[in-house]
Amino acid sequence: MKLSLSIEKFILHTQTQNYSKHSQTAYLIALCQFRDYFALDFDTDPDIKMIEADDIRPFLGYLHDNGISKSSIRMKMSAVKSFFKFCVTQDLISDNPSSSINIPKGEKRLPSFIQQNELSDIIRQFDNTTPLGARNEALFELIYGSGLRISEALNLVPSDLDFPQKLVKVRGKGNKERIIPLGEMSILSVQKYMHLRHSLNKGKINHLFLSKSGGKLASVCAWRMVNKAMQGFCSSPQKSPHVLRHSFATHLMDEGADINSVSEMLGHASLSTTQIYTHTSTDRIRKQYKNAHPRA
Predict the structure, then answer these.
(1) For domain 3-89, which CATH number applies: 1.10.150.130, 3.40.50.150, 3.40.50.2000, 3.40.1190.20?
(2) Whole-structure pTM value
(3) Is 279 a catalytic residue?
(4) Of 103-107, 111-115, 184-188, where does mean pLDDT reach its minimum?
(5) Is position 245 annotated as part of the catalytic site?
(6) One of 76, 135, 149, 197 is an active-site residue; which one?
(7) pLDDT tens readout for residues 80-90
């Protein structure tokens, strides 16, 4: 199978496997550049079975020469690796030529998070007596309370929430399901919203979070809502739904939660991904010690 055709097959796969729109776009752009690299440097659309590691490595230089930043090169090479893994699982190739290629290391940045004393001021802004205000409060509480990705929250349907058991069923990356505890404040906020949700529901959409017009709430609208709510009340330099997810993990780790449990709730494939929150907590403890201890 030609490279261009196998890329189309992979992009179609991302569209049917609950990948976020952002991830779909990022994969498409990266793999189109990978295809163009072969067209420009090799003047061919190769058969995917003929591609070897030595054919892929110069792609790093190709990206660098085109002014792509180090962090973007990391993302694009991750997309290439995901693509070849998919090709192996689909029996398009027998061996993964990208498995031996190392992705350039980037600077490890600690995630932004909301201070615990800032949360009540942010939540207080929402007018939960209106359908949209109640929706916004419920979405905010649910993302922070259960550490959801924005795409996971927006894909929920009412039956995914089990109030008596205080659990929410989430479909994450790769359409993998996981069960996460629901906090009391999340339950109260969602129940308040569901009492008012009928005024938004036009009877056609089953998603929990609806737009003003009755459709599924778009991620860009949710992002703007969270960003606006955090402005002026949050010291975090970043203000987005993902900061709420970071805050969920950071606050759990600060209070002594087991890293394995946090990793499972976040839906991380590896503990190494979750370990960044141990660095965050240790960093804060070190600063508090330095500021408070007389002989620090």
Answers:
(1) 1.10.150.130
(2) 0.60
(3) no
(4) 103-107
(5) yes
(6) 149
(7) 999 999 999 99
